[in-house]
Structure formats: structure tokens, C-alpha cells
Amino acid sequence: MTADAPRPATTAATTVAPTTPTASRATDRPGDTSPFALGLLLRQAHWRAAAVMSEALRPLGIELRHFAVLIVLVDRGPTVQRDLAAATGTDKAGIMRVVDDLERKGLAVRKSVPGDRRVRAVEITPQGVELFDAAHAGAAAPAESLVADLKPGEREQLTDLLTRFAYPAADGEA
Fold first, then answer.
1. DSSP state of 114
2. Strands across the sheet containing 79-80
3. Measured between alpha carbons, how far is 121 from 77 in angstroms, rounded to an integer?
4. Which residues contact 111 (CB under 8 A, 6 or more apart)?
5. Is 127 within 8 Å of 107 (Cβ atoms)?
6. End-to-end CA distance of the chain
């Protein structure tokens, strides 16, 4: 092309036109084959499970974010807030709010860590353990409803696949 030759008109429509067929665009519909399909499907599954479990926890006066911390405390024992944040995927300010809520409800307490007065460990209280156990009892039926449409053996298969997906280092261990 020379400087005098007319250039083809460029419009927003031609510069952003898709280079792939519409069928490969990411959606969250069943059957999506895009590279994002698995992540979108996992997101939908998480939202469904979180909604069901949130309803199971509501009568106990706590939310999933509170229960996530209680799970860590039952599993690990007294845990510093920094480690609670990492274990639950919560930021520093968020974990402080959750621990504040748990303390207000009498479900956890902060205690000094010997040798470092700046650091506080969070410990579940006996009342927190009671609530933890009650949450498990109350969640049994809602959890069953999540897998009610699966065929025999599929629940175990789903659990196995998700475990290997979420914890790849666990492959080959048993």
C-alpha cells in the first residue's frame, strides 16, 4: 500500500470480531467446551453447596465463614490468626472480623502465644465444639439433598475426583 492508497475502514466491530465460533465462548451452561468450562462448573457447584450449607448453619447463628474457622480450629487446635487467614482463604482484616464474631458469640477465644506477645492464637471454646457438632448434625439432611440425584457410587466417585482435583499432592496416597 502506498501513502496515497485508501486504507480499509476499521471499525470497532471489525477490530474486536471474535476469531472463534460462538460455541466455544465460555458459558456456565452444561456441555460448555471452552477452556473455562470446568472452572465455571465448579463455581456453580460451589454456589449451590454454599447456599445449602448456609441455610443449615443459619439456625445456629453462624455463617460459612465462621464455620470455616471452626473447622480449622477443630482440626489444628489453637491457631494464630495469620495461619487461619491462609487456611480459609481470608485476608487479614476479614479473619479479624470473623474471630471477633466468634469471640462475641463465645465460640472461640484469643490467647497469648508464649514467647511472642504480639501474636495471638485462636482457640475453640467448649461452646464452639458443641456448635460444631450441632452443625454437623443439622447439615446431614441438606448435604444428602445435594447428592440426591446421583446414582449409587457416584457420590463416592465425585468425592474422590474432587479430592484429587483440590489436593493434587494426595494422588497416589492412601
1. T
2. 79-80, 116-124, 108-113
3. 9
4. 78, 120, 121, 122, 123
5. yes
6. 67
> What distance in Å separates the CA atoms of residue 145 and residue 72, rounded to the nearest whole number?
25
Rounded CA separation 120/112 (Å): 5
Cell triple for 65: 465463614
Grid coordinates representing 56? 443449615
Please state, for a pLDDT cut of 70, what percent of the chain lies above it.
82
Give the burial string for 85-116 (b: 16+ CB within 10 Å, else e): bebbebeeeebeebbebbeebebbbbeeeeee
Identify whether the C-beta of residue 108 lies closer than 8 Å to the C-beta of residue 73: yes
- The amino acid that residue 28 corresponds to is D
DSSP state for residue 8 in the 8-state scheme: P
> Of 119, 69, 61, whose CA–CA distance to 89 is shortest?
69
| CA-to-CA separations, 72 to 28, 77, 132, 152, in angstroms, rounded | 31, 8, 11, 31
In tens, the pLDDT along 43-71 reads 999 999 999 999 999 999 999 999 999 99
* 39 CA to centre of own chain: 12
Query: Side chain identity at 142, as an amino acid letter?
Result: P
